[in-house]
Amino acid sequence: MAVYSGMLDFEIAFAYVFANLLSLPLWYSLLAKKNSIKSLIIQYQKINSLQKKSLPNRDAIINFAFAFCISIPVIAVTCCAAWISTDEVMKNCYGFFLPFQENFAAVLLRFCVLLLVFTSQHIFPNSAAIICTVLYFKFSDLFNVFYEELQDLRGEYVNHYLMHSKMKQHTLLFRVAYELQDATSVICFLFLCSRMALMYFTLATFMLQPEGISPANAWEMMPVVVAAPLSIIFLTICCSMITAKIKNCVTTLQEIQTDKALKDKTEKETLRCLESMLSKRFPLISACNVVILDLRLNFTVFGSLFTYGLLFLSLKK
């Protein structure tokens, strides 16, 4: 309706609708992987019980992340609803183009619509990203503890019973790495698609408005400007932590194998255990095998946004 009345460009309206519709497959993918995520939690507890060293308590960080994920859109909704009467386009769009007088009922209707839109557009996708981020964060701790325990074995006599125990942990970690990739791959892919679509939409809206943006429009953009980049950055950081810990474990196992191979008294069964662990290839955590979730992804995403912005600047001239 806003397109037909000339209030919005078709391209901007299409990008906005597309970004919102991506929340639907994201919801179904999260629902489909619910049992896999539960299985990962059970595997996490099982592996943790086999490890001698205790894991650090990350509950405060996780609680802060969830609170931040919810508070930013809620604050933006409240402020946007307070300022929306100053923006005629937004007032009509979020009021369903109904001829409301500016009273409490009209403000309440627009607030409810804004809250529903922001829940679908920001709160739920960011919550899904936090679930994946927490999984990466927690399992990186498991790999880190395993790495520290391997470091303790260097320079010590290791019998095959102890090495069998380490191989059991290694096998569980190897299995859970593939389960983690399978459980989070589609979720991360849809999340990245929705965030990138929203960021491109926001950039296009900002650059293509010659009269500037209203306060309500600025508050509408705030979750995209603040929460979306941070959620992508935190996701890739926690995922890259797993990759780094796996590399550390492999390097340490290679060093232990070299040390034990140089000693004549090393049991052959111990060397077989080491060879078995080194023969396993851990997966690279990715989003549907399209992009690898590492720190380089941040440069790709934000670099493309920067290039996109320069393109808009050249078009405006």
Automatic annotation (TrEMBL):
Keywords per UniProt: Membrane, Transmembrane, Transmembrane helix
Superkingdom assignment: Eukaryota
Transmembrane segments: 12-31, 60-84, 104-121, 183-203, 224-244, 297-315
Entry coiled-coil feature ranges: none
Membrane keyword on record: yes
Protein name per the record: Gustatory receptor
